[in-house]
Design brief:
Two copies of one chain form a homodimer. The first copy, chain A, has helices at residues 2-5, 9-16, 24-48, 67-82, 96-108, 127-131, 155-168, 184-199, 216-228, 241-254, 283-298, and strands at residues 56-61, 86-91, 113-116, 135-139, 149-153, 174-177, 209-210, 235-238, 259-263, 276-280, 307-310, 313-317. The first copy, chain A, is of the alpha/beta class. In chain A, helix 2 crosses helix 3 (24-48) and helix 7 packs parallel to helix 8. The longest helix of chain A is centred in the N-terminal third of the chain and has 25 residues, at 24-48. The N and C termini of chain A lie far apart (70 Å). Chains A, B: Residues 1-50 form the HTH lacI-type domain.
């Protein structure tokens, strides 16, 4: 390992044990070497596993009672059924520790593979199982600390296109409401916002950005606070559909004419009581692509991990005001 | 068996084989006797099974990518987790044959029990497994041809209350749009409509009733046709949330002031672009009650099957017109 990375064994040990004072570029090199070796071993172990031990796969998601995740679960189950395989779905409730326990239990059941929408930011805990041949595909958020396939939305490009559209309509003061940047999707979407603003020469104004907003009520409060401030935004960018719904509610309640651009489409967006634009993508395709990739792995595919990206598009939603 | 039912063995055979020309009251007696004997045998077999063989239960539902079912799945999974049990969810896609195949596969896996939202109208196919000790709870629709616990919405009373509310507001011409009466919930809700109308002395007018409507587009067409007829309805009763959404769309599009009363609440109903009333009930409680009952059975409860009824209530939804 140390030889592959070109560093001392002591450095390898310090990186693995997450000790401080390791130069970032050394840590990168060590992790890359670990990843590569680990992945080679996994691929070999996986091909040694007999293909279909339990005819069961597992899906770890945040919350089944959320249409985004249940749509993914339905697609994964559909692909599984075509392979005569049952799907066990478990919920991590956005809790990284619960995710680890659920992962361990599903591995103990000897499922043939796992689709994971990770809650935590560090998935090195999966490495021992991966090295023993557990096939895994990460969905919506990329893996960290382990090499594996992933299927992701093109978050950065989608947010860029959304902001570019608002800028093209003449907006210069755009209120931005997103979830915590600790979450991959929120981080990427915020990055897209910054890139689009910078590209148009519009300064990034911290007073117009609220992060860590995770539900409709919080979103409504964030929008209200920005509208009540001096020189309020003429448009809003909302980072996911829960935030968008809260923004719709508050903008409608006030009769505000501010433009609204929200990431994620959602059921009944076409019947929202005011116009909005959504950054839409094919949620079913997310689930389908992940499940198809997993069954390729179960079928013996030992190629280098791939990252599949699902594109986005802008769609007009909501009803025109005053039609009644 | 014939002795218990007080009929000839030939009659028993004819009832079991579903032959014609058996008097209904004889058939009833035979089926009741079969049910009672079957159930006694099941309860004994169930108690002989060692409690926790696979630490897995199964859930058979129509479609996971429908928030009603995914909410139920999430609750069943939550109760299962509290019992250190995994949940396998399979979709019947409203196809009785697929339901039977899914049932057989889950029994082959030796799950500890099943929650079933039945697609078909006849569940006598489950009897052999039930008699070997498979615990089952039927959800949202009652079992037929087998004795088992069930958890149901109070459909008839809910529809009655909804129509009574429209009548109290002075409506006499009420358009009714429901799914096929072959479906238990649609049949019960339609029965509630008839009872409420009869109680108020308002004649049941076939020209104001559309049955077999199963999606929003069909509902929008049904509402449009009734509004375009002579002497159009001043109010609509819609039999489930998919039908309600189609009715909202069509009524909003026309700027119609007709009242709307829809069975089932739904996410974002509060943001629909016109007022409506929904007949709401606790969907989580449906799933929770079914799972709790199943684990009571797994824990050894051999009491006579129970029917748990979930109550409904009327809730105002939608936004007031012209607030923008």
């Amino acid at each position: 390992m140390a030889a592959v990375a070109g560093v001392s064994p002591k450095t390898v040990s310090r990186v693995i044990n997450n000790e401080p004072n390791v130069r970032p570029e050394l840590a990168e090199r060590v992790l890359a070497a670990i990843g590569e070796l680990g992945f080679r071993r996994n691929a070999m172990a996986s091909s040694l596993r007999s293909g279909r031990e339990t005819a069961t796969i597992g899906l770890i998601i945040e919350d089944l009672a959320n249409l985004f995740y249940s749509t993914i679960a339905a697609e994964v189950a559909r692909v599984a059924r075509a392979h005569d395989t049952h799907l066990i779905t478990v919920s991590s409730e956005e809790d990284p520790e619960l995710e680890q326990r659920q992962f361990a239990q599903l591995c103990q059941r000897r499922v043939d593979g796992l689709v994971i929408v990770p809650a935590g930011a560090d998935h090195s805990y999966t490495r021992p199982e991966a090295e023993m041949g557990m096939r895994m595909v990460f969905l919506d958020r990329p893996p960290s600390g382990v090499l594996a396939d992933s299927v992701l939305v093109d978050n950065e490009a989608g947010a860029r296109a959304g902001i570019a559209s608002l800028l093209a309509d003449g907006h210069r003061r755009i209120g931005v409401v997103v979830d915590s940047p600790a979450i991959h999707t929120a981080r990427e979407r915020l990055a897209g916002v910054r890139t689009a603003l910078a590209g148009a020469g519009v300064p990034y104004d911290d007073s117009l950005v609220r992060v860590g907003v995770s539900d409709p009520d919080g979103a409504a409060r964030a929008v209200a606070a920005m509208l009540d401030a001096n020189d309020p935004p003429t448009a809003f960018f909302t980072g996911n559909n829960r935030i968008t719904v809260g923004a719709v509610r508050e903008l409608y309640r006030r009769g505000s004419g501010a433009a609204l651009m929200g990431f994620d489409d959602f059921e009944l967006s076409a019947l929202m009581p005011r116009p909005l634009t959504v950054i839409a993508y094919d949620v079913r395709e997310l689930g389908r692509a992940a499940a198809v990739r997993l069954f390729e792995r179960i079928g013996g595919d030992a190629s280098w991990p791939s990252e599949i990206t699902i594109p986005t598009r802008l769609v007009q939603r909501g009803v025109e005001p005053g039609a009644t």
